[in-house]
Amino acid sequence: MTDINTDLPWFDNPPLTEVAISVQFESIHGLQAPQIGLLWSKFREKYPITEQHEPINPVLETFNHPPSSIIQLEISQAPPTPRCWFLNSGGTELIQVQSDRFIHNWRKIKQGDDYPRYSYIRSEFSNEIEKFCQFLEEEKLGELNPIQCEISYVNHIVSDDIWRKHSDLGKIFPSWNIHYSDDFLWDLENVRLATQHVFSDKHGEPWGRLHISFNPAFRKEDESPMYVMSLVARGRPETEDIDGIFEFLDHGRELIVKAFASVTSKNMHKNIWRRRDGIR
Fold it and tell me: 256: closest CA among 140, 119, 111, 153?
């Protein structure tokens, strides 16, 4: 799952279906729908398709109380500024823009849509953020002041020769077991799991959280059981500039790759995802 740090695990056949990298910033009130339309002109050649969605609420990782969404209450007759999508022709890559967030997604739409690896997505996001900042300056809308960065990986782990039903989660996630204290409960149907882990900066201070979840689902094409495994690293950049953004994203990505390998079984690594380490 990596192509930069050779100390990270590498999987020839990863179950990855989506990667998103995001920066959340202080709301730019002048960045309304007309301005986002102007911004599209800078990306239209690669991203010719647009969609409009409800904005995402701000989410901040805090450490004096549990992480939470920020609910903003405003007395206004105006609707909230939409979240606009700019999509490539295949729908595999998109940019999402709203007044306080900028996101780049890669998605697996069909078989053969191979993950282009992190270095490519990082490079694209870097170029796009640069264009976005130039646009803010040209239109005199203000500056990008980052307050939170996020990187997320979504995996679709479909039933195979190792596991057949949702109650087999322990064959994917070895830490799970169903050894109850007595024999009262009958057969288990499925499991939902969510964990979160605080990680620290180089000074030993809380920097962000890694969230891991397993949710049961069924593949649309053939109704095969699968688990949707999500890993999200989120926190505040140490410096409020582009370098700070990418320092956090690079560290978050490293944590996600190592965590994926740590919590999933060696049997899946060897026989399904074909793990190889030390790739140059």
Answer: 153
